[in-house]
Automatic annotation (TrEMBL):
<dbReference type="Pfam" id="PF04983">
    <property type="entry name" value="RNA_pol_Rpb1_3"/>
</dbReference>
<dbReference type="GO" id="GO:0009536">
    <property type="term" value="C:plastid"/>
</dbReference>
<dbReference type="InterPro" id="IPR042102">
    <property type="entry name" value="RNA_pol_Rpb1_3_sf"/>
</dbReference>
<comment type="similarity">
    <text>Belongs to the RNA polymerase beta' chain family.</text>
</comment>
<keyword id="KW-0548">Nucleotidyltransferase</keyword>
<keyword id="KW-0804">Transcription</keyword>
<dbReference type="GO" id="GO:0005634">
    <property type="term" value="C:nucleus"/>
</dbReference>
<feature type="domain" description="RNA polymerase N-terminal">
    <location>
        <begin position="173"/>
        <end position="479"/>
    </location>
</feature>
<dbReference type="InterPro" id="IPR007080">
    <property type="entry name" value="RNA_pol_Rpb1_1"/>
</dbReference>
<keyword id="KW-0597">Phosphoprotein</keyword>
<keyword id="KW-0460">Magnesium</keyword>
<keyword id="KW-0862">Zinc</keyword>
<keyword id="KW-0479">Metal-binding</keyword>
<dbReference type="InterPro" id="IPR007081">
    <property type="entry name" value="RNA_pol_Rpb1_5"/>
</dbReference>
<keyword id="KW-0240">DNA-directed RNA polymerase</keyword>
<dbReference type="InterPro" id="IPR006592">
    <property type="entry name" value="RNA_pol_N"/>
</dbReference>
<dbReference type="Pfam" id="PF00623">
    <property type="entry name" value="RNA_pol_Rpb1_2"/>
</dbReference>
C-alpha cells in the first residue's frame, strides 16, 4: 500500500452556475461559429461552392477546418430557406439538395477580450408596400457562453466530421466549460512557513476565488437579480477562470495576489524556457555526472582525461559479476567505499532480487558474499570511458568520449590539442563529465564519440584538432635547418617515445661527435605509409626546386621528413594537413598517437632548448623608427591637405558619395595605409631570431597586426565603422578645438603600445574596445536564438545508417 507521499491525487470538479468560455478554445469556437448558421447550426456553405468542394478533399482535419472557414466566412445568409425554392427544385429534374438551410440572416461574430459579440445587419426593404421585417432586438448583442453552447449543441455529427472534429471524442460544444476540473493537492502543494502558518499555492488561491465567485453568481440567480447584475457577476467569474488557465492574456489585466504579484497560471507553468516542458522534461539534472575546473596536462593522450581521486571515489559503474571478474570485484567489495590510498573500491552490491546493500553499513563479511549475476557498483578505474562536455554545446565535438586517468588534486586535466573543439581555455572554465551506466552506452561512446574518431569534422571535412601553443612553436624551431641535437638530449627524447624498441636511429653527423637533426625527431613519429608535399605559411612562389632556399617545402616520403619547416599550415586544422592525412590514410588511432608523441617529444626538446619573449622583441632599430615616424607625419600632412581642399570646396566627390563621405573615405584610406606601411617596415626590421616573429611565423600566437601595433603605430580607432564621432558640441573631447577634422581629434592613435598612448588616444582606444565588448554580448544571445530556431525546424530530419 503506497503512502500519501506516492499518491498522485485524484481530481475533483466544480459545477459552474453558468457555462463559461474556455480561454484556450475561444478562437476555435469563433471559427466554428462563423462556419455554421446562427439559427439552425448547419454549415453555411454547400456542395455548390467550389471552395467548399475543394476543402472536403483535404484529409488533415485541422487544415480542413481552415479551408471550410475560408469558404464560409463570406456567407451572410443560411441558404436554401424558402419553400418556393424547394418547390422549384422538385419541378425540375435536379435532385433535391440534402442541405435544407433556414434562410436566416447571419450576424458578424467577433471576439472582444473574453466576450463574444454578434452584430446583425439591418435588413433592406424590398419595396415600400412590403411590410418591414421585424428588426432584431438589438443590432449588437453580447453572446453569452450559454447561447454559443446552444448553437454548438445543435451541430449534427455529420457536420462535426466535415469540420474536422470527431463527434465521439471532440464535440464542439465541449469547448464551452460547464464543469471545471479541480486538480488534487499534489499539483498545488501548500508550503509550511513555520509551525503555525502555511502558505497556499497560486492555483489554490485562484481556485478559491473561482469557487467564491461561482457561489455569488448562483446566489444572485436564485434571488432573481436583474439581468445586468447577473451579467456582471458572470463576467467576473469568466475573468477568474480565464486567468486561472492563462494569466498573460493580451489586453487583459493580470490577476494578482494581495501583494500585487501576478498569479502563476497553469499556462506559465508549462511554457517558455523555465516551464515544465523545456525546463523539467527536456532539460533535466542528471545523476552520475561531475563538474569541476579544467587545467592543461601536455603529458596525457588526447583521448585521456585526468580525473581527481575525489570524483573517482564517488561516481560508480554497475558491473555484473561473471566468472571472469568475480575475484577482482571481491577485492573491490572488500575495500568498500573508503579504499586505501591509490586503490579504488565499491559502493553497493545489488542482488538478483534487486536488493541493494550499502557497503558503508555492511559489518558482517557474510553479507559481502558475491554470486554470479549480482551487480557491483564499483568506483571509476583508469581506462573507464566517460563523456566530457563543455557548454555551450554548439556542435557535435562539444561532447566527446575520453578514457579516464585518476590523478591527484581537484581539477580535470586535459590535453592541449583537444581544447579547440570544446572552445575551452584554462582561465577558470568548468566542464562536465558523464559516466555511462551500461555496456550499450559504453559501446556507443567507444565507437562513435571517442576523441580520435572526432578529429575530422563532418561540417567542413577538416581536422578540428591540431598542434597548438608551445608545441607548435617548438615544431617550427626543431625543424629549422640549423637545429642540431646532442646525444644526451636525443636519448632523453627517445624516452618519451612509446614505441621505442631500443634501436637508436643513426645520427646525421658522426664527427667530431654524433649529432642528430631536429627533423630526425619527426622521423620517429610520422607513420611509415605517409607521403606528403606541402608548403610552409611563408613560402613564396619564387622558391622552386627539390629543396627550397628558405626550406619552405615540406616533403615527407615513407614517413621521413626530408625537408621543410613545420608550422600551423602543416600541423594545424587545415584541410590536407599532416594530421588530416594520417587520420585518413592510417586511421584515427595513428592520428591520436601522432598528436600525443609530437607534444611529448617536442615539449621536452623545447624545455631543454628554451624560449622566452621580452620587451626587446618589440623594439625596432633606430633607422626603422625614423622611417616609421616619417610615414606617419607624411600621412598627417596628407590629411591636412585633404582638409584644406574640403574646406575650400575643391575636393572632388566620389561617385555615389557626398563630399563629406568622400572626404572621410579618403582620410581613412590615407591613415590605414600609413599604419600598414609603418607596420610592414617594423616587421621587415625584425631579425630571424626575434621571438615575437618566431611565434607569428609558427602560427602559435599573435599576428603581423599585433607586431605592427606593438612596434610602430596602433592606427585609427573606429566606432560603428566610422572615425570617432563628435560627441560634445562639434568636438570629440574637450582637449580639441571645435570643428577639428584632423587625424588626432578623430581617433588616430599614432603611438605604438611600446611608446604608450596619450590620454586622448587612450580614451578613443577605449571607445573602440567598448563597442567590441557590447557587440560580443549582443551577438551571443542573437546567434544562440537563431541556432535554437534552426534546430527546432530541422530536428526531425535525420540520416539513417543505410543513407535514407
Amino acid at each position: 500500500m503506497a503512502g500519501m507521499a506516492e499518491c498522485p491525487g485524484h481530481f475533483g470538479h466544480l459545477e459552474l452556475a453558468k457555462p463559461m468560455f474556455h480561454i484556450g478554445f475561444i478562437k476555435t469556437v469563433l471559427s466554428i461559429m462563423r462556419c455554421v448558421c446562427f439559427n439552425c447550426s448547419k454549415i453555411l456553405a454547400d456542395e455548390d461552392d467550389t471552395k467548399f468542394k475543394q476543402a472536403l478533399k483535404i484529409r488533415n482535419p485541422k487544415n480542413r477546418l481552415k479551408r471550410i472557414y475560408d469558404a464560409c466566412k463570406s456567407k451572410k445568409v443560411c441558404a436554401g430557406g424558402d419553400d418556393l425554392d424547394v418547390q422549384e427544385q422538385q419541378d425540375t429534374d435536379e435532385p433535391v439538395k440534402k442541405r435544407g438551410g433556414c434562410g436566416a440572416q447571419q450576424p458578424n461574430i467577433t471576439v472582444d477580450g473574453m466576450k463574444m459579440v454578434a452584430e446583425f445587419k439591418a435588413p433592406k426593404k424590398k419595396n415600400d408596400d412590403q411590410e418591414q421585417l421585424p428588426e432584431p432586438v438589438e443590432r449588437k448583442q453580447i453572446l453569452s457562453a450559454e447561447r454559443v453552447l446552444n448553437v454548438l449543441k445543435r451541430i449534427s455529427d455529420e457536420d462535426c466530421l466535415l469540420l474536422g472534429l470527431n463527434p465521439k471524442f471532440a464535440r464542439p460544444d465541449w469547448m464551452i466549460l460547464q464543469v471545471l476540473p479541480i486538480p488534487p493537492p499534489p499539483v498545488r502543494p501548500s508550503v509550511m512557513m513555520d509551525t503555525s502558518s502555511r502558505s497556499e499555492d497560486d492555483l489554490t488561491h485562484q481556485l478559491a476565488m473561482i469557487i467564491r465567485h461561482n457561489e455569488n453568481l448562483r446566489r444572485q440567480e436564485r434571488n432573481g437579480a436583474p439581468a445586468h447584475i447577473i451579467t456582471e457577476f458572470a463576467q467576473l467569474l469568466q475573468f477568474h477562470i480565464a486567468t486561472y488557465f492563462d494569466n498573460e492574456l493580451p489586453g487583459q489585466p493580470r490577476a494578482t495576489q494581495r501583494s500585487g504579484r501576478p498569479i502563476k497560471s497553469i499556462c506559465s507553468r508549462l511554457k517558455a524556457k523555465e516551464g515544465r516542458i523545456r525546463g523539467n522534461l527536456m532539460g533535466k539534472r542528471v545523476d552520475f555526472s561531475a563538474r569541476t575546473v579544467i587545467t592543461p596536462d601536455p603529458n596525457i593522450n588526447i583521448d585521456e582525461l585526468g580525473v581527481p581521486w575525489s570524483i573517482a571515489l564517488n561516481l560508480t559503474y554497475p558491473e555484473t559479476v561473471t566468472p571472469y571478474n568475480i575475484e577482482r570485484l571481491k577485492e573491490l567489495v572488500e575495500y568498500g567505499p573508503h579504499p586505501p590510498p591509490g586503490k579504488t573500491g565499491a559502493k553497493y552490491i545489488i542482488r538478483e532480487d534487486g536488493q541493494r546493500l550499502d557497503l558503508r553499513y555492511v559489518k558482517k563479511s557474510s553479507d559481502q558474499h558475491l554470486e554470479l549475476g549480482y551487480k557491483v557498483e564499483r568506483h571509476l578505474n583508469d581506462g573507464d570511458f566517460v563523456l566530457f562536455n563543455r557548454q555551450p554545446s554548439l556542435h557535435k565535438m562539444s561532447i566527446m568520449g575520453h578514457r579516464i586517468k585518476i590523478m591527484p588534486y581537484s581539477t580535470f586535466r586535459l590535453n592541449l590539442s583537444v581544447t579547440s573543439p570544446y572552445n575551452a581555455d584554462f582561465d577558470g572554465d568548468e566542464m562536465n563529465m558523464h559516466v555511462p551506466q551500461s555496456f550499450e552506452t559504453r559501446a556507443e561512446v567507444l565507437e562513435l564519440m571517442m576523441v580520435p574518431k572526432c578529429i575530422v569534422s563532418p561540417q567542413s571535412n577538416r581536422p578540428v584538432m591540431g598542434i597548438v601553443q608551445d608545441t607548435l612553436l617548438g615544431c617550427r624551431k626543431i625543424t629549422k635547418r640549423d637545429t642540431l641535437i646532442e646525444k644526451d638530449v636525443f636519448m632523453n627524447i627517445l624516452m618519451w617515445w612509446e614505441d621505442f624498441d631500443g634501436k637508436v636511429p643513426a645520427p646525421a653527423i658522426l664527427k667530431p661527435r654524433p649529432i642528430w637533426t631536429g627533423k630526425q625527431v619527426f622521423n620517429l613519429i610520422i607513420p611509415k605509409p605517409i607521403n606528403l608535399i606541402r608548403f610552409s605559411a611563408w613560402h613564396s612562389e619564387a622558391e622552386t626546386g627539390f629543396i627550397t632556399p628558405g626550406d619552405t617545402m615540406v616533403r615527407i616520403e615513407k614517413g621521413e621528413l626530408l625537408s621543410g619547416t613545420l608550422c600551423k599550415k602543416t600541423l594545424g586544422t587545415s584541410t590536407g594537413s599532416l594530421i588530416h592525412v594520417i587520420w585518413e590514410e592510417v586511421g584515427p588511432d595513428a592520428a591520436r598517437k601522432f598528436l600525443g608523441h609530437t607534444q611529448w617529444l617536442v615539449n621536452y626538446w623545447l624545455l631543454q632548448n628554451g624560449f622566452s619573449i621580452g620587451i626587446g622583441d618589440t623594439i625596432a632599430d633606430a633607422a626603422t623608427m625614423v622611417k616609421i615616424n616619417e610615414t606617419i607625419s607624411k600621412a598627417k600632412d596628407d590629411v591636412k591637405e585633404l582638409i584644406m581642399q574640403a574646406h575650400d570646396k575643391q575636393l572632388e566627390a566620389e561617385p555615389g558619395r557626398t563630399m563629406m563621405e568622400s572626404f572621410e573615405n579618403r582620410v581613412n584610406q590615407v591613415l590605414n595605409k600609413a599604419r600598414d606601411d609603418a607596420g610592414s617596415s617594423a616587421q621587415k626590421s625584425l631579425s630571424e631570431s626575434n621571438n615575437l616573429k618566431a611565434m607569428v611565423t609558427a602560427g602559435s600566437k599573435g599576428s603581423f597586426i599585433n607586431i605592427s601595433q606593438m612596434t610602430a603605430c596602433v592606427g585609427q580607432q573606429n566606432v560603428e565603422g566610422k572615425r570617432i564621432p563628435f560627441g560634445f558640441i562639434d568636438r570629440t573631447l574637450p582637449h580639441f578645438t571645435k570643428d577639428d577634422y584632423g587625424p588626432e581629434s578623430r581617433g588616430f592613435v599614432e603611438n605604438s603600445y611600446l611608446r604608450g598612448l596619450t590620454p586622448q588616444e587612450f580614451f578613443f582606444h577605449a571607445m573602440g574596445g567598448r563597442e567590441g565588448l557590447i557587440d560580443t554580448a549582443v551577438k551571443t544571445s542573437e546567434t544562440g536564438y537563431i541556432q535554437r530556431r534552426l534546430v527546432k525546424a530541422m530536428e526531425d530530419i535525420i540520416v539513417k545508417y543505410d543513407g535514407t
